[in-house]
Fold:
Amino acid sequence: MLAKKESLTYKKIFFFWIPLAATWLMMAIEGPFLAAIIARLANPKFNLAAFGVAFSFAVFIEAPVIMIMSASTALAKDRDSYIKLRNFTFVLNGITTAVMIIFIIPPIFYFITQGLIGLPENVAKLTHHAFIFILPWPAAIGYRRFYQGILIRSNLTRRVAYGTIIRLMAMVMTSLTCYLFFDLNGALVGTLSLAVAVSAEAVASTIMVHPSVRHLSLKEINPERSEETPISYRYITKFYYPLALTSILGIGVYPMVTFFLGKSRMPIESLAVLPVINSLVFIFRSLGLSFQEVGIALLEKNKNAFKPLRNFAFGLGIVLVCFLSLITLTPFSYIWFYKISGLSLELTIFAKFPAQIATLLPGLTVLISLQRALLINNKKTTPITIASSIEVICIFTILLVTISAFNWVGAIAAAAALVIGRLLTNGYLVWPCLKVLKREENI
Structure:
C-alpha cells in the first residue's frame, strides 16, 4: 500500500488501474460477443430485442448490489467491518433474488412487458424464457463484487482481472457450445451464457480472496477509525443506501428507455440496435467505470492524490472519446455493426447516427467516476444520489417530449437523452466536489 506521504505518480496510477481496466474491458466484450452470436442465429431482430429487454430488467433488479464493491473498498478495514459488510451483502443478495423470482411470475411479467411496455407477443415470450435463465445473475454479482472490493483494498487488482478472465472464458464456452450443438433461441443463449459466466467468476473470487480475508480476520478495530462513527449495520446502511439508490436510479434508466422505445417510431428496430450500440459504447465506458474504485483506494492511501488522479482522468476521458469517434464517425462503423456485430445492412445504417450521438459518454463516465470516488472517500454519498435523480428526471423528460410530442425514432431519442442527462449530472457534482476539496485544502 502507498504510504500516506508518498507522492502519487501517473505511473503508479496506471499500474494500479490497468488490471481493473482490463477487468471492465473484458466484461464489456461480453455484450458485442453475445450480440454477434445472437445475430447469427434464427430470427435475429426479435431475439436481439428480447435479449436486450431481459438484460435491462436483470441489471435493474441487481442495481442495489452494484455499489457493494465501492463499499467494501472503502469500509472493509478490519474483522468487525468485514463480517458486518459480508452479512449486509448476503441480505441484499437474497432480496434481489426474491425480486427476480417474483418478476418471473407470468401474470406479473406479461403485464409489465406487454401491458406497460407494449412488446409484441413473440418478443415478450422470448424475453420471459430468456429471463428465467438469468435468475442467478444478481446474487452472483453482489457476491463477487463484495470480494473484489476487498481484493482492490488489498492492492490485489490483478486477481480481480484473473476472475474476469475466468468469467469471459465461461461465457465464450457456454455460448459457443449452445451455438454449435443446441437448437436454442438466441435470447436464451445470451442470458444462459451470462448466468454461467458470473457464477464462475463468483466462485473464482471466493477462492482468490482467502488470503485477504484471513488478514482482515486477524485485524482488530482500526485505530484510524477511532474518531469516526463505529461500524454497525446502521452505519453501513446509512453509508450505503444513497449508493444503492444511485444505482437503482442510474440503472433504472434502461428499463425506462425500453418502455419508451416500445412506444416510439420504429420500435423493433430501436430495441434491436440499442443493445448493440450500448455494447460498443460500454467497451469505452468500462475503462472509465473502472476508475471509481481506483480513486477510492488511492485517495484513502494518499490524501494528496486528487490532482494527479484528476489529470490522469481528464487525459483518459479525452483518449476514450477520440478512439470511439474513430469507429462511430468513420467507415469503421460499417465494419463494427455489419461485419463484427452481424447486423443486417438495414440495421447497420439505422444504428450509425444514435452511436455517433453517444460518443461523448465514455469521457463523461471517467469524470463521474472521479467525482463519485472523491465523495465516497469522504463519506459524502447523498450528493451522488441527488445527481442521479437529476439525470433520471432529465432522461425521462427528454424521452417523453421527443417520442410523445415530436415522434422521434426511439434509438435517436434514447442516445440524446442519455448524453444530456449525464452532462447535467457531471455539472451538478462539481459543486459538492469543490466543497470537499476546499475543506481538505487540496486546491
About this structure: Residues 410-440 form the longest helix (31 residues).
